[in-house]
User: Which sequence fits this backbone?
């Protein structure tokens, strides 16, 4: 897994450096990448949950306070998540896993929605760091409540897609990527599929941040393939919903392909 | 083996931009095929083949299929690395014995074709079916320990047991259907890969004959819908494609009867004829007489008249078919094929006329070669009712090593069908010859109208818009129609499914 992250870091560094004429523009990007790699290594060598938690929080605050934008929103969400964590002591450890799950959920929302000043592309190393934290948390948290939440999320996405007249996945790709992350986090997936899923999600986020020329049109296809991997364990939860999900996505792919052929790409 | 293919492909991609000679890619492809055939012959395929679960396949099968595929790949207008990727993937599909690898590679092939071709809705239906199949397969497999070398299949839930095999049949059917639209080319890869896919899954087959009713009628509807376009066709190539589709119906019938090997062999032979036609038409593009001979040869071999290759195949399938459903479908397909051939010959008969005795030596040589080829095709696919024990389905037993037990049958069934069909062909030929052009045109027009009245109203709207308005308004109309129609259909499906799933979750 660490090799995949290494490869994607190198690719992102390469893309960022190639894009800018002056290397001084890239320095914040390099710094955030370095910070995220330091915390990866800390994750690898620390094993008590409280230290992992501390590493995650310190890194998030460090990045957000140094280069983050819209800090008010960040603090709102952060304090909600701390409030949820404090519930753990009120309930005296009864709903421990569920509360931790909600905490992870809010952290994921923060990771995906945060924006940065100076350089918008910093979001990629931040997302990379968050995916790694998610994979680390995956070993610790197991909540039965999560599957129900995932089902609700799927239904919401389907309704949103229908509201958009099934035009394409690109408009909703934020939310779908979020859902797919949660899927990777929630279900127990076989190792090969887990690695493939992480690779696909990272490809999606690299396309979304850097927008390389040839691949922008392919983002729907990648979303489709990533959702296939999430659906493998989900099929045991609800066969019908999985079928509907696939059907909707393939119709969306078709509509989007037709639109692209006519040269009407809307981002 | 795969390492060698990979390295040579990489070299080809690297030098591709500087290439001016068209022969070099072909030579490298030939080298790849020969080397990998040798590797398979020596049964020494190397480490990556072991990882991918490749085991000994027949050398001839690999050689034949990969040659057909590489002709197809070179014709596509993709970039070089997509072509090389396709070749590698198809080589993996042919050789491997492990089901997960087959599923994943087929998914890749279909995805590449989808993202590169002009988009039709049926492409996405086939993608949906294939992804559903792979989903069920992997989710069944994930409860057991996942190893790459698995070639067994387990059904763990009732739903998947019920759905799985019908899904595979439907997938093959949809793939056969999406080969053509008259605007797009027939692709050998898309015809053969689904059949190989189904062949590898043959152990998953839990019930054989129940589906032929449903899928056969679907295919028949499809063929009749196609007939409408053929009646208005203006070139001989379209009727050739139509004849090919009817002949593929035979291999589909074999497939639903559970004879996967026969079906594959039959399809390969058909594709061989079609590829020969296509490549020869390109190769002899300046010589009209040779082209005429080639067209005539492929028309005869693809149509279901008795004593041609595909006609003998369809008679064999008829005498094997147990139930009345497949029987009647095949007979209708046969009649459609013969009528198409007769009309084509009547319409374009003057264009196809060649005086062989006064032709050039090239024409004579080509004719003799094609005659021998069609004889060889017939000989290598002789049915068990016709041949002695050693010669039954020679090609199939060479490709798959399958053994045939001679049924103690006098062949009465076969002979009766043969004679009746011979008489039928003569009668139809006589009728078509004597029918006046006016009457035939009127019948064709009525048939066209009848089918058009059944099909969706939006087509009518589209055509009316095309006639009346200028180009710009037509474009606008089309856009709005596509949005509305796809939205309507998909939204209806979606809402029903949503309601049902919500109810299930609530329960």
Assistant:
């Amino acid at each position: 897994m660490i090799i995949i992250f290494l490869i994607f870091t190198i690719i992102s560094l390469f893309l960022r450096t190639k894009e800018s004429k002056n290397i001084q523009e890239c320095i914040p990007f390099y710094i955030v990448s370095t910070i995220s790699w330091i915390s990866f290594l800390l994750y690898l060598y620390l094993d008590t949950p409280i230290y992992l938690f501390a590493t995650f929080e310190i890194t998030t605050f460090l990045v957000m306070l140094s280069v983050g934008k819209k800090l008010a929103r960040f603090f709102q969400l952060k304090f909600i998540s701390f409030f949820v964590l404090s519930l753990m002591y009120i309930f005296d450890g009864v709903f421990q896993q569920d509360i931790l799950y909600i905490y992870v959920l809010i952290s994921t929302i923060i990771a995906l929605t945060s924006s940065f000043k100076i350089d918008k592309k910093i979001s990629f190393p931040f997302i990379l760091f968050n995916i790694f934290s998610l994979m680390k948390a995956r070993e610790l948290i197991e909540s039965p409540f999560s599957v129900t939440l995932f089902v609700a999320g799927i239904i919401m996405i389907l309704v949103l897609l229908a509201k958009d007249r099934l035009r394409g996945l690109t408009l909703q790709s934020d939310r779908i990527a979020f859902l797919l992350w949660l899927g990777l986090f929630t279900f127990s997936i076989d190792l090969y599929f887990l690695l493939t899923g992480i690779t696909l999600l990272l490809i999606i986020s690299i396309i979304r941040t850097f927008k390389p020329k040839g691949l922008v049109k392919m983002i729907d296809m990648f979303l489709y393939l990533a959702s296939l991997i999430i659906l493998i364990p989900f099929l045991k939860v609800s066969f019908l919903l999985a079928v509907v999900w696939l059907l909707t996505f393939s119709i969306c792919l078709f509509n989007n392909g037709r639109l692209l052929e006519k040269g009407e790409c809307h981002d | 083996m795969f390492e060698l293919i990979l390295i040579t492909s990489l070299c080809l991609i690297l030098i591709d931009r500087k290439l001016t000679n068209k022969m070099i890619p072909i030579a490298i492809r030939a080298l790849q095929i020969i080397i990998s055939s040798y590797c398979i012959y020596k049964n020494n395929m190397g480490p990556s083949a072991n990882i991918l679960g490749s085991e000994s396949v027949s050398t001839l099968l690999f050689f034949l299929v990969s040659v057909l595929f590489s002709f197809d790949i070179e014709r596509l207008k993709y970039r070089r690395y997509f072509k090389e990727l396709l070749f590698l993937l198809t080589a993996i599909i042919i050789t491997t014995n492990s089901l997960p690898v087959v599923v994943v590679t087929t998914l890749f092939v279909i995805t590449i074709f989808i993202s590169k071709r002009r988009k039709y809705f049926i492409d996405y239906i086939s993608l949906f079916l294939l992804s559903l199949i792979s989903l069920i397969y992997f989710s069944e497999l994930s409860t057991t320990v996942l190893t790459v070398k698995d070639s067994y299949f387990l059904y763990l839930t009732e739903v998947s047991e019920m759905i799985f095999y019908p899904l595979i049949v439907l997938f093959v059917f949809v793939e056969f259907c999406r080969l053509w639209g008259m605007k797009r080319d027939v692709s050998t890869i898309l015809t053969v890969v689904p059949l190989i896919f189904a062949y590898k899954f043959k152990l998953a087959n839990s019930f054989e004959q129940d589906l032929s009713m449903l899928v056969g009628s679907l295919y028949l509807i499809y063929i009749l819908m196609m007939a409408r376009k053929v009646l208005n066709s203006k070139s001989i190539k379209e009727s050739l494609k139509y004849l090919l589709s009817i002949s593929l119906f035979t291999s589909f019938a074999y497939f639903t009867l559970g004879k996967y090997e026969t079906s594959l062999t039959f399809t390969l032979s058909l594709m061989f004829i079609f590829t020969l036609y296509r490549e020869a038409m390109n190769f002899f593009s300046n010589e009209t007489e040779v082209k005429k001979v080639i067209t005539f040869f492929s028309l005869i071999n693809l149509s279901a008249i008795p004593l041609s290759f595909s006609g003998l195949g369809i008679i064999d399938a008829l005498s094997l078919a147990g139930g009345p459903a497949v029987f009647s479908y095949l007979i209708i397909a046969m009649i459609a094929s013969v009528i198409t051939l007769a009309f084509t010959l009547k319409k374009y008969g003057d264009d196809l006329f060649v005086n062989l005795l006064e032709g050039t030596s090239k024409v004579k040589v080509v004719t003799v070669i094609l005659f021998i080829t069609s004889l060889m095709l017939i000989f290598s696919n002789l049915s068990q009712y016709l041949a002695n024990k050693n010669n039954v389905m020679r090609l199939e037993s060479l490709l798959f090593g399958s053994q045939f037990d001679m049924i103690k049958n006098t062949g009465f069934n076969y002979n009766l069908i043969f004679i009746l069909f011979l008489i039928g062909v003569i009668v139809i030929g006589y009728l078509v010859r004597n029918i006046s052009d006016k009457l035939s045109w009127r019948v064709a027009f009525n048939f066209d109208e009848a089918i058009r009245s059944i099909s969706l109203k939006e087509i009518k709207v589209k055509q009316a818009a095309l006639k009346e308005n200028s180009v710009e308004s037509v474009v606008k109309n089309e856009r709005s129609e596509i949005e509305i129609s796809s939205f309507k259909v998909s939204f209806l499906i979606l809402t029903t499914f949503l309601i049902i799933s919500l109810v299930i979750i609530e329960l």
Summary: Chain A has two domains: 1-142, 144-267. Residues 38 and 250 of chain A are 40 Å apart (CA to CA).
